[in-house]
Specification:
- This protein is mostly helical.
- 54% of the residues lie in helices and 0% in strands.
- The protein has helices at residues 3-9, 14-21, 25-33, 43-50, 54-57.
- Helix 2 (14-21) packs across helix 3.
- The longest helix has 9 residues, at 25-33.
Length: 67
């Protein structure tokens, strides 16, 4: 996941993200390092906070539209 990238682009500290997401700062550190993923229910909130799509948060490009 691209949590660290989007967190830093948004100028949000680990402590602030932990408070917003109602987790401890160690959880955010694990997310940043790719050692753990947030619970599925938290992912839409993260995407909204960072102003990105869930696919972007996962580092995915949308599929090409075919005719």
């Amino acid at each position: 996941m691209e949590i660290k990238k989007y967190r830093e682009l948004a100028g949000i500290s680990k402590a602030e993200l932990a408070r917003i997401m109602e987790v401890d700062q160690a959880a955010v550190t694990r997310w940043d390092r790719g050692e753990a993923l947030p619970r599925a229910a938290k992912i839409p909130k993260l995407a909204d906070l960072f102003g990105c799509t869930i696919d972007q948060l996962y580092g995915r490009e949308p599929p090409a539209v075919s005719n």
